[in-house]
Amino acid sequence: MRKQLTSLSLSLGILLFSGSSLAVPDVPLERINPDTSSVTLDSLGFDQQLWGTPEQPGDRQALLKSIDHSLRYLATPTAAAAYQNYSIPGITLERVRRSLVRFRQLLLTSNSPAELQAAVNREFEVYQSVGNDDQGTVLFTGYFEPIYAASRTPSAEYRYPLYRLPTNFNTWKTPHPTRADLEGVDGFGENSPLNGLELVWLRDRFQAFLIHVQGSARLQLPDGSVMSVGYAGKTDYPYTSVGRELVKDGKLPLDGLTLPVLLDYFSQFPSELDYYLPRNQSFVFFRETNGAPATGSLGVPVTAERSIATDKSLMPPGALALIQTRIPYPNAQGQLESWWVSRYVLDQDTGSAIKGPGRVDIFMGTGVLAGDRAGVISGNGNLYYLLLKDSR
After folding, report:
1. For residue 263, is pLDDT > 60?
2. How many CA atoms lie within 13 A of 174 on its CB side?
């Protein structure tokens, strides 16, 4: 997200952290030997969110649905092609599929996080991402599907368009036009070569930009109806991080750089949008999705807190994973508190700045709270994949 959330999944992580080129590791995942490693499922911690608490209901049904989405993907020719030349010996489409089927059974029959963990520990092997330092360190960020006000017709209030993919896009000469060429430095698109391809107009320029970042959105129209839009294509420029550009120019410190910080900065200095947004020359086109759920690069829906985006040139698509990182949750006063969690997830998306074995983006859901939570996820953790034993 991402996307339809997109086939090129663009995230808040991209907004804040530039996708610098990384050397591709020879082996992005390493199987953990329980006889020589201190890392075991027993040491990774329980997924307490599955069963929930009296104050917070569990989301076991959401995880089951997410597993079913991955199983649907794994039955496709696209999945067969993706696994045909997968680089990690022993990780095959059939093994990934059977691992999901068995984990689903255990999820249905276990009565507690401890019971599930014990069963998985007996039956599954653990593979760990080597991370960005060959020591397993992975940077986690979050992404979401926003809900913004918009209009199908322009007005003095709704001035910033999203555009459809041109029918002749495949014939465009490269390098493609830049963001400034396509929407103008001010984002109004008054002399844009895309005139006539406007899909919808936003009233806030940075919100329109964030839809480019997220790859999809739900839009509340003036008549009360809701329109959904998703990724349709993009130009050939790499993403340039607006947050990093502000840091480079000394406008903001890198430490503590989050989406709320960026929102506050551009609220104070709105003219800076004309200067910094065009630095991201990449440009995304959209299509109306008629209410379809946010969808990842595998072509199946993504599930809040149960779907992640990784580099699909390295990581097994659709596979069962376990992440360890900090995720923010609202407390009784409505403030976000960051909790260290272990969470079972499905690897169902990717992103143009989610590169290398040391990057994971967590889908946090739809709407304001999801955006608030996604916007402050930025920290290190670990990424593991779980596969049935004796099936290599």
Report:
1. yes
2. 6
Partners of 220 in the β-ladder: 149, 226
CA 389 – CA 12 distance, rounded (Å): 36
What pLDDT score does 223 carry? 97
Place of tokens 């006889």: 35
175 prior amide bond cis, ω within 30: yes
Global pTM value = 0.87
**3-state class (DSSP) for residue 105:** helix
The whole-angstrom separation of Cα 76 and Cα 72 is 7
Q: How many CB atoms lie within 10 A of CB 101?
A: 13
The residues facing 324 across adjacent strands are: 342, 382
CA atoms of 55 and 50, how far apart (whole Å): 13
pLDDT at 148 over 90: yes
Average pLDDT over residues 21-31: 75
Helices (H) and strands (E) in the chain, counts: 12, 14
Q: Is the CB of residue 22 less than 8 Å from the CB of residue 355?
A: yes
Give the distance from CA 38 to its chain's centroid.
30
Angle of CA points 94, 358, 286, to nearest 5°: 80
DSSP assignments along 175-228, one per residue: SPPPHHHHH-TTS--TT-TTTT-EEEEES-HHHHHHHHHHSEEEEE-TTS-EEE
The single-letter code of the amino acid at 74 is L
